[in-house]
Amino acid sequence: MKNGWLYALLFSIGWIAIKMTAYALEWHLDDIQIFVLLNMAFLTAAIALFMYRQKRQEAESNILTDIKTGLTVGLPYTLIISFFLFFYYRDIYPEFNQHKLAAYAQRMDSAKEIAAIRKTNSALENKSDKEIVQLARKNTAMMYNPQFTLSISLLALLVYSTLNSLLIAVIYRKVIFRD
């Protein structure tokens, strides 16, 4: 199972290299969807390749050991990427958070935006525009905090790794390694 850490390390270093290359080239720095999808693809590939290698070597296994095999790659990958993102948004590119907060603050200057927020949340119906703006800025500042990013990425990647491990194990059992 030590090879799982190696797979996780190789794939996470690959993703980090792409992210840092994009940073160095100033390519799509504020567009996180590309990097999220790429991150998911790297995690899926790491789990699938390692699980395939393990299934080829093992004579007998059950679904739980297959999921465990997938998680031996998913968990270290999750830890490496999540802590990288924490340091990336805290030390390497803190301007991302500042840009997002400034863009949100600019949107909050619109009475139309405040009315839309008031309409979607019934608890804010009796609040003044100033109170709504303060609450929105406070919530947005929390969302674009590196610690929040760390927590969310840990949770999201762990859930994604677990579901991926389950799905890939089922696919391997039903399609590729049928008995």
Strand content: under 5%
Biggest sheet statistics: none
- For the residues shown, what is the average pLDDT? 89
Unreliable stretches, pLDDT < 50, 5 or more residues?
Answer: none
Q: How big is the Rg?
A: 21 Å
Strand segment tally: 0
* H and E order: HHHHHHH
Task: Supply the helix-strand structural class.
Answer: mainly alpha
**Termini gap:** 24 Å
Helices, by number, come to 7
Q: Indicate the percent of residues in helices.
A: over 70%
General form = elongated
What does this structure look like?
The protein has 179 residues and is mainly alpha-helical. The chain has a domain of 123 residues. It contains 7 helices and no strands.
Structure described in brief:
By secondary structure, this protein is an all-alpha fold. The protein has a domain at 2-93 and 146-176.
SSE order and pairing:
Layout: H1 2-25, H2 32-57, H3 63-92, H4 95-107, H5 111-120, H6 129-143, H7 146-176
From the structure above, extract its key features.
7 helices, 179 residues, mainly alpha
